């Protein structure tokens, strides 16, 4: 099977062609073998010619795409000492963290540890961070692994409010909230009875504000179906497995309700009016092996009627699963048979879709085909009409289903009627015209749907536009987060970095204007105007109940075998020059940084005790450990802070 787009008439350098062909075929072979080919062949049966037509169309339409346009590089270069115009927030994937980049430069400016342990900051080491991550009765961290996929900011009236980022942990079914003033995680919650928690999206409507009695929700999809509860029952009886869709309260970070769903969920999108949330489903078959998961010709995009679900919960129409106290309502096909009372609606879409995104005007959802070369456009208004009983067939809410290329995954909008979708197998970004797609669906053969394509390097996963998931899209940039980079950077061993390519989408043609290597492996990101983010540089001493407010307050207190060391840091000294404990004591060190100067962070490490953390200006952090090794231990500052940074030390004397 040929899946490369060279036939479409698009030129590329011979070297390029070979590499792209290799990648395309290796991707097919590597990902799903013959079955994927079958899947694509099946799609082609219905519309193979149309694909060629669309591609051919793009080829002619984009005939200038390969004639290198004159690029004004100064527009994208951020000169030394200059600041970027956007923040990029990315998930870290299986590194378990969150990354912050400046864009367009692509400079990494912060890593926020979330589900991982980080010895730069002491995340997972300090008592404060361990409390947020959660510990077991034996004192060990609940989990030291995480897999972050989706990052989304809190909204007020459809626009980012700069307050919080929500990010998922796919491995351990957790949601984390990161406060953006300090760029630190302040809460982590585990979802009950969920495995493979993948898609996450907050409500876009309500502000998260005490004064207006916030109702902000965070919606969470679950990808893996399991026995419920998953306590050893029904182990090999997959017919009894099912998935739950969870709604979390953004303020308390506690689950409010869950919905029992047929099939699985992958990515999540929310409407701008607060009425609907939805998720693409690739395993409506409830298959347990991949070939089972792609056996049906169609899967679905499932919509959740938020107000109805909350009314059902209020009316007591729920059940519980296992020990969980979270109310669960029934959103299965059977329970949702009558549209007028349905909590959910399953809209059939071509097989194994991936990614669902809503247009900035709130009118259309685009669900990418993955195994089908299509994107399905679903009308928000028609979905609401289905719930009102005004239309019968959920497929009648579909207003377009253009063929756009092979392996469509994720979509961004420019707010001016154009849509940009990543094509994993084609290694391209395709630009298509939403209005033309709808005309074509109505039968207009002249409608020119695909208007441009650009090669990316290589195999893009997520793609998103600047401010494109808000009511204020600016149509400036698209970022293609590519899964493979091969020859784009100096080789660094078996695993290449991922690559993030910046594409200027402000003109008719897409132009790649930046290549940024990324430590594996970001999945989703958002690109946010810099004026939205307001950070603080100095903490308030009074925020910390344990604060040691002056150097003269430094002391050692003993209660039985428990010893508390009250310590301050102020360049270039710690408040105690030495202190003595006994072997076997449980020692808690409370350290307050009394410095008030921006960027004057001190570190604190104890050799051979696994203690390493930082305290920012006016911040207090603490650690607890057993002093099990007698001897002299130089506690030293790890963060270069002063000309006498190396001299900034204190001694812990552990008596035998
Ligand atoms: S998923 Cu990874 S590329 Cu987690 Cu949003 Cu599509
Ligand atoms: Cu304090 Cu280095
Ligand atoms: Ca399927």
TrEMBL record:
- Give an example GO molecular function: copper ion binding
Name the major location: periplasm
Q: Name one GO biological process term.
A: denitrification pathway
- Which EC numbers does the record give? 1.7.2.4
Cofactors demanded by this protein: Cu cation; Ca(2+)
Report the GO terms under cellular component.
membrane; periplasmic space
Pfam families associated with the record: COX2 (PF00116), nos_propeller (PF18764), nos_propeller_2 (PF18793)
Keywords from UniProt, A to Z, are: Calcium, Copper, Metal-binding, Oxidoreductase, Periplasm, Signal
In what residue span(s) does the Cytochrome oxidase subunit II copper A binding domain sit?
558-656
Where in or outside the cell it occurs: the entry states: Periplasm
Under the heading Gene3D superfamilies, the entry gives: Cupredoxins - blue copper proteins (2.60.40.420), YVTN repeat-like/Quinoprotein amine dehydrogenase (2.130.10.10)
Q: In which pathway does it act?
A: Nitrogen metabolism; nitrate reduction (denitrification); dinitrogen from nitrate: step 4/4
What is catalyzed by this enzyme?
N2 + 2 Fe(III)-[cytochrome c] + H2O = nitrous oxide + 2 Fe(II)-[cytochrome c] + 2 H(+)
InterPro entries xrefs: CcO_II-like_C, Cupredoxin, N2O_reductase_N, N2OR_C, NO_Rdtase, Nos_propeller, NOS_propeller_2, NosZ/Cyto_c_oxidase_sub2
Family that this chain belongs to: Belongs to the NosZ family. In the C-terminal section; belongs to the cytochrome c oxidase subunit 2 family.
Q: How does it assemble?
A: Homodimer.
Biological role stated in the UniProt entry: Nitrous-oxide reductase is part of a bacterial respiratory system which is activated under anaerobic conditions in the presence of nitrate or nitrous oxide.
Q: What is this protein called?
A: Nitrous-oxide reductase
Q: Which organism is it from?
A: Paraburkholderia acidiphila
